[in-house]
Design brief:
CATH architecture of the largest domain in chain B: 3-Layer(aba) Sandwich
Helix content of chain A: over 70%
CATH class of the largest domain in chain B: Alpha Beta
Largest sheet of chain B: 7 strands, mixed
Number of helices of chain B: 11
Radius of gyration of chain B: 23 Å
Helix content of chain B: 25-40%
Shape of chain B: globular
Number of strands of chain A: 2
Number of strands of chain B: 17
Order of helices and strands of chain B: HEHEHEHEHEHEHEHEHEEHEEHEEEEE
Number of helices of chain A: 15
Largest interface: A-B, 42 and 47 residues
Largest sheet of chain A: 2 strands, antiparallel
Distance between the termini of chain A: 27 Å
Radius of gyration of chain A: 24 Å
Strand order of the largest sheet of chain B: 12-10-9-8-6-7-17
Number of domains of chain B: 2
Structural class of chain A: mainly alpha
Oligomer: heterodimer
Chain lengths: 371, 396
């Protein structure tokens, strides 16, 4: 044991302590300030590295995200898809089950959709095919999620690694089938599936095929909110997440909850795959999920697993992605530049959570001068 | 804290103003050309297109809008629609897999001219605003093959290898006509100079996968291939050759700066003549040729400078001589007298020229003693597996 020397007695320059709960408006103020601060840092970097006017670049960002009616629709579609995957991972996260496998679950849902469209596109009545496509995608996503859940429930395997590995398997399976079904043979790309007959395509409402996806995800958002907040299942998930022993003590079947919740999680990912493949893309590649399975983790965490807040966080992330892509196009910068910008902004947003949860006490200046 | 707040609020105001002001500043009603690229400048293939797009637009005095790293998926349709939103009257995409999404966009925006390199479906889709283009790059590859043949002969003469050991390695992306036509013409060029030459092809299943291309090249080198060429778009194969000291015939442009000791020559398509022609036609409201094939004569098929350090002596002269033969028609790349399939000389072949549901041969392409490549449509359709070439993996 060290003697308490003078130095140790000395007051620390900065003291970090956990905050009592901050009022909502204050925590949101901190988040908004963080975004603004990140924009200032980005501005400095933009000037340093490109010499371009940072305000012009931010204006471009707005234009890129909401500049035309198509872009607004496309933005909302992007938000809807990211939100859908975020909704999917949330019940699992709330249960402290780290489902890192949403990417693969979305892909498997998408692959099931694409398979039905390719195999039965010409032989099945359209309405029946549509039902089959919906069922297949949900089942495929659920199966991909329930495998690690069963292993976790029975043998207590590490679900983080397991779900992560399942992503790579899903990608390889999708790669395999894109070669098998490539058009023309050997080109490794499927192209638009059933371009002429549109068999298995989800119907288009209005001018763009985004609206249906947006409506479905809006309904899912409300559904998951109610499920987690007001249903018995939602309560069980919360208890298992807080403490498995408590859950066992009050008679909750933990294994059942884990498996049931992961089936839900996977099924929702399957829906995301369905909406992507049958709703907008009408094709499948190994990038169909587009990293949403991982971005969704951030969306869900930042929103503290609250589906309604997730709308905001998903919007923010997609807005920045779209805007940053436009920056690289208009200013002739490499794609990496937009990644740098979004990276900085996300860094600040995540950092702001620290200031919301903790408070910094600086050593008073008087004390320092009196030394 | 208050001070910081004040500064940030001021920043918000300025930003908001800037955002509002931005809309009116650039409403110059110029013609805009939009370009969609599969990868960015790091890919030799896309760099070749990016340079041509910039050059063609400079020649025409217009500003290009470039979108890089656009996947061969719905992203391509989204990018095309977004370019139309940005006011482009001409939209171009550079990768084979972009085609069905370009057609989708062309149907939706009939007032905009769409053009697509390497595609096959313009002549069957028959849309007034959708066109394909390619070049007779098999002639360029043949010439590059001549340089490879000379190098093999030099190695044989110097006693480094025996005639039987003259084995070429080739890194290919996928197993469809564009790649098959490329490696076969390259091989025939080499064989025309070095008759004992054989070839092994290793596929990567990707247009751009630096690691896979490097590994494929290394595998071929370990398999005693003494010269490497490639049809995939990263620096993987050339740098593997430079490391191993194995001569390399490149594609899409010179890789001499990175591989000064092993780079011999590279064939490439110069897209500037086509882009200039097509954009000009779109500007003037004229129809763009449905299926445009660039040639040696249109300066679309070109070879880079020969690297004297790595090439055999006399390469430049020999290439010029063969090039003249190709141009005057005395040499045909796919002369049926020069290759056999399963030991037989072909006198008839039905190629799959019209891309339709059947994916079967529909057009007779052998006549007058040679295979007529890129004559019935611009994109290659030579997909014969000729003797002398071994495919090591066919999974792609």
């Amino acid at each position: 044991m060290k003697k308490p020397s003078e130095k140790a007695v000395h007051e620390q320059l900065v003291q970090i302590s956990k905050r009592a709960n901050l009022p909502a408006w204050q925590s949101w103020l901190i988040r908004i300030l963080a975004v603004l601060a990140s924009l200032v840092v980005c501005a400095v970097i933009i000037v340093l590295f490109t010499g371009d006017n940072p305000f012009a670049i931010y204006a471009t960002m707005f234009k890129g995200a909401v500049g035309t009616s198509r872009r607004i629709w496309s933005l909302l579609q992007g938000v809807a898809m990211l939100l859908c995957v975020s909704l999917a991972v949330t019940p699992a996260f709330k249960m402290r089950f780290w489902n890192i496998g949403a990417e693969g679950q979305v892909l498997m849902g998408g692959l099931a959709t694409a398979s039905c469209m390719i195999l039965f596109g010409n032989s099945m009545p359209p309405a029946l095919l549509l039902l089959l496509v919906i069922a297949a995608s949900i089942v495929a996503g659920a199966i991909w999620a329930v495998i690690p859940a069963i292993f976790k429930a029975i043998w207590n395997t590490n679900e983080t690694l397991f779900t992560l590995m399942m992503n790579y398997i899903a990608m390889q399976i999708v790669s395999y089938f894109t070669y098998i079904w490539s058009v023309p043979k050997g080109s490794g790309k499927i192209g638009v599936i059933n371009a002429a007959s549109q068999a298995g395509w989800l119907p288009t409402i209005g001018k763009y095929n985004y609206l249906l996806n947006i409506l479905i995800v809006a309904a899912l958002t409300i559904g998951i909110y109610i499920y987690l907040r007001y249903s018995k299942h939602g309560y069980e998930i919360a208890v298992v997440g807080e403490s498995e022993n408590t859950a066992k003590y009050i008679g909750i079947n933990v294994k059942k909850v884990i498996i049931r919740t992961m089936i839900l999680s996977g099924a929702l990912c399957g829906v995301a795959g369905l909406l992507l493949v049958a709703g907008t893309d009408h094709t499948i590649t190994r990038d169909t999920a587009g990293g949403r399975g991982f971005t969704a983790i951030m969306v869900s965490w930042l929103a503290k697993f609250n589906p309604l807040y997730m709308v905001v966080t998903a919007f923010l992330l997609v807005f920045m992605q779209k805007g940053a892509t436009e920056i690289s196009t208009v200013f002739g910068l490499n794609d990496s530049f937009s990644d740098i910008i979004t990276g900085i902004i996300i860094f600040f947003i995540i950092g702001s959570e620290f200031f919301i949860n903790y408070t910094l006490k600086f050593r008073s200046r008087k004390g320092a001068e009196a030394k | 804290m208050k001070k910081i707040l004040a500064v940030l609020l001021a920043a918000v105001l300025v930003l908001a103003l800037a955002a509002c002001g931005g809309n009116t500043s650039d409403e110059a009603k110029d013609f805009k050309a939009g370009f969609i690229f599969l990868h960015d400048e790091n890919s030799t293939y896309d760099l070749n297109f990016i340079n041509a797009a910039k050059q063609a637009c400079e020649n025409l005095g217009i500003t290009p809008i470039l979108k890089t790293n656009i996947d061969e998926s719905n992203d391509c349709y989204e990018a095309a629609a977004d370019l139309v939103d940005s006011g482009c009257g001409f939209v171009f995409a550079d990768s084979f897999g972009h085609e069905s999404f370009m057609i989708q966009a062309a149907k939706e925006f009939p007032d905009v001219q769409f053009a697509h390199a390497t595609g096959t479906r313009a002549h069957t889709e028959n849309l007034p605003n959708y066109a394909n283009a390619f070049a007779s790059i098999y002639e360029g590859r043949y010439l590059a093959g001549v340089a490879a043949g000379l190098k093999l002969n030099q190695m044989i003469e110097e006693g480094k290898i025996t005639a039987e050991e003259a084995k070429i390695g080739y890194v290919g992306a996928f197993t469809y006509a564009e790649v098959i036509s490329g490696y076969t013409s390259f091989y025939l060029g080499a064989k025309s100079i070095c008759p004992s030459a054989t070839m092994e092809v290793q596929f990567t299943g990707s247009w751009y996968d630096e690691t896979a291309e490097k590994e494929a090249a290394t595998l071929l080198i370990n398999d005693k291939c003494v010269l490497i060429s490639q049809h995939a778009d990263s620096m993987g194969a050339p740098t593997a050759c430079e490391t191993a000291g194995v001569p390399n015939v490149s594609y899409n442009g010179s890789t001499q700066s990175a591989c000064p000791n092993t780079f011999i020559v590279s064939s490439r398509i110069d897209w500037t003549p086509y882009l200039e022609y097509a954009i000009k036609a779109a500007m003037e409201g004229k129809e763009v040729d449905k299926d445009w094939t660039g040639t040696l004569a249109t300066a679309s098929v070109v070879l880079t400078d020969v690297n004297e350090t790595a090439a055999a002596p006399g390469t430049v002269e020999k290439i010029e001589e063969v090039k003249a033969g190709l141009e005057d028609g005395s040499i045909h790349v796919f002369d049926t007298a020069n290759f056999t399939v399963d030991g037989k000389t072909l006198d008839s072949y039905m190629a799959d020229v019209d891309t339709d549901e059947a994916y079967q041969g529909d057009t007779e392409v052998i006549s007058d003693g040679y295979f007529h490549e890129s004559e019935f449509r611009s994109a290659p359709y030579f997909d014969l597996r000729i003797d002398g070439i071994t495919l090591l993996n066919e999974k792609f």
